[in-house]
């Protein structure tokens, strides 16, 4: 009799163990346990877990950085021109201690990673808000300069998305980074950008030529100022007395020449000249 009871107990235990499912939670992830449809508020830590099919189960969720790839977007810039193609990658992480609450609050917004089959908490929500942030921030920049402000656009999208997530769940989500992978404008915009760059280069060349011409003009001005100053100094030194003295010397040399019979009387001479007449 005792043997039969022991065997029965062993059979029951065996069936119970056979019906018990178990698994492991990878490091960096957490599990959410549901028991008879009720969600436990405490996350299952990484490691081995036990469950009973139909009664209790554990779903694994990522607490690591999650990537969202937004491809082939065509947002409008501030000048109301649409981009041809914009590809953006947004990376976010959920607080591992809040995943169970997110599981309840955003039921239907979670997705599974196709490779690992691990749940991505509130993935649908973040995708929608990230897309809105990209369109909103793109509309703040002109299309002609968009290609030069990729980093600024990425930073603006990150700030906008983080603020929106904080409005609903402060401290739960962290937008770790945003990367602009591709940014292609409309062909008409590309032509305008090329024309703008060419015009800018031409303007720079013209400014250089003007600067050179101004420098050469300054050299000529300085040269003219030097000549004028020299003439001024010479004019100031040519006094009436000095000119009279030079005239007297010239007359003296003329008079000293032998056999001369010509007398020169300067109109401005105030005294009678001394003339030597040869015999």
Gap from first CA to last CA: 185 Å
Structural shape:
rod-shaped
CATH superfamily of one domain: Band 7 domain
Q: Which percent band covers the strand fraction? A: 15-25%
Which class do the helix and strand fractions yield? alpha+beta
Describe this structure in words.
With 279 residues, the protein is α+β, with helices and mostly antiparallel strands. Among the domains are: 43 residues; 126 residues, Tetrahydropterin Synthase, Chain A (2-Layer Sandwich), CATH 3.30.479.30. Helices cover 46% and strands 22% of the residues. It has a three-stranded antiparallel sheet. Strands 6-7-10 form a three-stranded antiparallel sheet, with helices on one face. A two-stranded antiparallel ribbon has the order 1-4. α3 crosses α4.
Main attributes of the structure:
279 residues, alpha+beta, 3-stranded antiparallel beta sheet, single chain, 6 helices
Structure summarized in a few sentences:
The protein has 279 residues and is of the alpha+beta class. The chain has helices spanning 2-19, 99-105, 123-138, 150-168, 187-237, 240-256; strands spanning 21-25, 29-35, 38-39, 47-51, 56-62, 66-73, 85-94, 111-112, 119-120, 173-184.
Q: Layout of helices and strands, plus pairs?
A:
Elements: H1 2-19, E1 21-25, E2 29-35, E3 38-39, E4 47-51, E5 56-62, E6 66-73, E7 85-94, H2 99-105, E8 111-112, E9 119-120, H3 123-138, H4 150-168, E10 173-184, H5 187-237, H6 240-256
Antiparallel strand pairs: 1-4, 2-3, 2-5, 6-7, 7-10, 8-9
Helix pairs in contact: 3-4
């Amino acid at each position: 009799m005792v043997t039969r009871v022991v065997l029965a107990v062993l059979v029951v235990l065996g069936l119970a163990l056979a019906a018990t499912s178990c698994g492991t939670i990878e490091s960096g992830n957490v599990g959410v346990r549901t028991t008879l449809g009720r969600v436990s508020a405490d996350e299952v830590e990484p490691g081995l877990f036990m469950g009973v099919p139909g009664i209790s189960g554990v779903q694994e969720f990522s607490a690591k950085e999650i990537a969202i790839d937004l491809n082939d977007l065509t947002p409008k810039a501030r000048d109301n021109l649409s981009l041809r193609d914009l590809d953006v990658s947004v990376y976010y992480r959920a607080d591992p201690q809040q995943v169970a609450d997110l599981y309840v609050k955003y039921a239907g917004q979670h997705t599974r990673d196709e490779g690992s089959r691990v749940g991505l908490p509130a993935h649908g929500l973040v995708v929608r808000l990230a897309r809105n942030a990209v369109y909103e921030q793109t509309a703040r920049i002109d299309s002609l300069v968009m290609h030069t402000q990729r980093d600024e656009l990425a930073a603006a999208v990150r700030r906008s998305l983080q603020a929106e997530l904080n409005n609903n769940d402060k401290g739960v989500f962290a937008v770790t980074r945003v990367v602009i992978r591709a940014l292609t404008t409309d062909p008409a915009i590309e032509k305008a950008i090329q024309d703008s760059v060419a015009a800018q280069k031409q303007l720079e060349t013209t400014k250089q030529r003007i600067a050179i011409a101004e420098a050469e003009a300054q050299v000529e001005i300085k040269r003219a100022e030097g000549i004028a100053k020299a003439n001024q100094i010479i004019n100031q030194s040519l006094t009436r007395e000095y000119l009279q003295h030079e005239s007297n010397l010239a007359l003296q040399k003329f008079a000293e020449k032998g056999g001369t019979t010509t007398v020169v009387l300067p109109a401005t001479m105030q005294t009678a000249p001394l003339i030597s007449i040869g015999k």
